[in-house]
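Hey team,

Filing this mostly as a record. A colleague (T.K.) asked me to run one chain through the structure pipeline before their review meeting, and I want the input and output archived in the tracker in case anyone asks later how it was produced. No errors, nothing strange. Just documentation.

Input sequence:
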Amino acid sequence: MPEQPAAEQNAPSGSLNISLLILSIVAYNFASYLTIGLPLAVLPGWVHDQLGFSAFWAGVVISLQYVATLLSRPHAGRYADLWGPKKVVVTGLVGCLISGLCILLAALIASPLWSLILLCVGRLILGVGQSFTGTGTSLWGVARVGSLHIGRVISWNGIVTYGAMAIGAPLGVVIFRAGGLLWLSLVIVAICVVGIICAVPRPAVKASRARPLPFRAVLGKIAGFGAILAMGSAGFGVIATFITLFYQDKGWEGAAFALSLFSGAFVGARLLFPNAINRHGGLRVASVCLAVEAAGLFLVAAAGDPWMAKTGAFMTGAGFSLVFPALGVVAVKVVPQQNQGSALATYTAFMDLSLGITGPLAGFIMNYAGVSRVYLLTALLVCVAFFCTLRLQRRQASEPVTGDSSG
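Output structure:
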């Protein structure tokens, strides 16, 4: 059977009902990101202090998850196209569950080396599980509410992602202090089991039987959008990673508040403008957002006092907030429906790659040119993304790339 067109026909009407249905699906991604956030602030110290390994290995344990997520994104999208998104979500949650069991075994085993190996294996599986769950929930949500609301699905998926990370890290520290790594692993396992139990009975959206395009063809169609996303993501990366060092270099206090403003603006913009992409088009929204993001980065680079830097951080968060869903709406619609999973996953991988490169590259530049120059150069890079978006907008001005329910 072809993928059920009834999914869109049975989509709820009314903004609140649509949002509630989307939330009921992206909640599985919230669960997967909780399993990432809970051990995030605990594992490095445990590897270093309890197992006795160097800070290098503590960093490896954390980084393996991000590497696995990046490498498995295209596969997650392809399997979502072939199996249907529900199966991919459940598979991803099973991966997160296995990761929790690896942490449990690492806490119980006496050998430090085997504990480290188990943690590394678990983090690799967690990365794959997260990419499957994240990609699957986006496509499941779109299939249930209709392609008209792609932007809203992607936006809500991002909100629960950062919400889970914000909640998970401090909560993980509290649980670890109360019961050690054993309790923390049991909480992770319980979250995954509940997620799987809730997901399995839900009606699935069948996968398309049409032959999908090869990965190279999908990559060629969405590469332009992915490149713009990668450049825009650099602004997000330098604020999140280096704003504390920027404040230290200036001799200022209040870096944590700047990060709070940045994060609050990011989430707030998605909540305040849920229909902006449908009303104005993905490329137009992306171009405005990139302009705001670039202006914010220029403010940080030129900041002569803390409030100027805080204003810049706020503008950067607000600007970048809608870049991902705005470009994503256009990217997934340039491929046939049977390839939308691959398109979304490959598009997301550009952001993963950008955030992975931004840290070390910006750190290298900082050593030679200073931290303020990093923000100036990043602002210029975002300006390049802005002009590329304008060019795409002119090229596709006559094409109905957004706001249509046909996809």
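Quick notes for T.K.: Residues 15 and 261 are 27 Å apart (CA to CA). Residues 1-9, 401-407 have pLDDT under 50 and may be disordered.
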